[in-house]
Protein 1
Amino acid sequence: MSDVRTLRDADTVDLETAAAPSGGARDRRSAPAPVSEDSRLAIEIRTLVERGTMDEARERFGDLVALHQRRASRIAYQYLRDAADADEAVQDAFVKVFSHITSYRETWPFEVWFTRILTNGCLDRRKARARRDRWFVSNEISSADEARVSSAGGGHGDPERTLLARERRAKLAAAINRLDGRQRTVFTLCHYGDCTPREISAVTGLNESTVRVHLFRAARKLRGLLGGKP
């Protein structure tokens, strides 16, 4: 199974192919877009690996991990709803990135390339867990899990408010799980991965207008599931 592929069920591509845009997209590009900080780091690490200076490459890779760790953890947790599984998925994604860094091409933003690796890893874990626990479904969110993925500080607020907030998050998580696959993916990348519709399009292989339709339908369905007007 390829480490990087579109999130459409029938499409698979290898890591090097995924790092390059289609011919049409390349032809339409009149000028190269500015290279982001993480993309510059990825290019530098790729060069170091190609030169065989692995110690320096690993050191610089730590800087790249620091840029994406929190965002990656949010995305993985929304897919897996388990802090330990999310941590493992994020670590696996970073390992795959470093192992295949020589196939990265700057024609794609590094964030898009990495997010595709991460989300596909999370989807694989969901499928594996479903096979193991076919008859068991849990939407509970433990306080320990919340502490590991939440960036909010302090734990001495009003216990009643804390409980109500946790219940609301649990209801939202259960509602998100009831979205169909593409709607759930698009909603998660937008609201937990801070991705724009264009970035989601690059990650999923859906065109941008389709992404916007899925976002609209996901929001409408969630409002209905949570008791608002559909």
Note: The radius of gyration is 19 Å.
Protein 2
Amino acid sequence: MLQRVEPRRDNTGNRRGRRSREEILEVASRLMAERGYAATTLSELSRESGLPKSAVYHHFRSKGGLLSAVMEHGAYAFFQHMARAQQHPPREGSARERLGWYLRRTGEVFLANPDFLRLHLILVMNAEAAEAAEVERIIERVRRDGRAHMNHMIADSFAEYGPEIAQTVADRLDYFAIAGFDGAFVAWQADPSRSMAEAMDLLTDAVAALGESMAAGLRP
């Protein structure tokens, strides 16, 4: 899983330096999510944050370094939020009911972190950040960690079928479920009036139906 990256220490170690770093990250995340990495200039970032361009170079060394920090920071916050939202999964109920509990809460986490997810999908779909090799590694880790998280949710939801069958179902369906999440988020971005909760219920129905069919076929 992604680990939190501590900011580069200011020589003065003062709080103002730490605040300026957080302010730059917050503004950069919003601008890059709205306009893309290539279209976000350091001049624009300086104007929006009220901080000089020299502050960006001081904290992040380059625009590519800033993007790496934005993605690392966003990914850490996203998965921490996910872990908190799913701390106490239900132990009772059908596979569909348990999976629905997981996916509803995951949808809520998506809605709470739109800038990070929007930027993540922008970077996945084009090569505009190719100059920052570290960003590609972060994207790969986010996709890998996200799929592992989905795998766990599905396997836990189908636990009533036994660990071997539950894991087989999860291994077959985790990528499909991730694709469903990506599609639901893009649809919500295109039309915010659409209900993410309803999309999660439909995704739950699809994954549960496929999983139950697979599980039935795997039983001796």
Note: Residues 163-190 form the longest helix (28 residues).
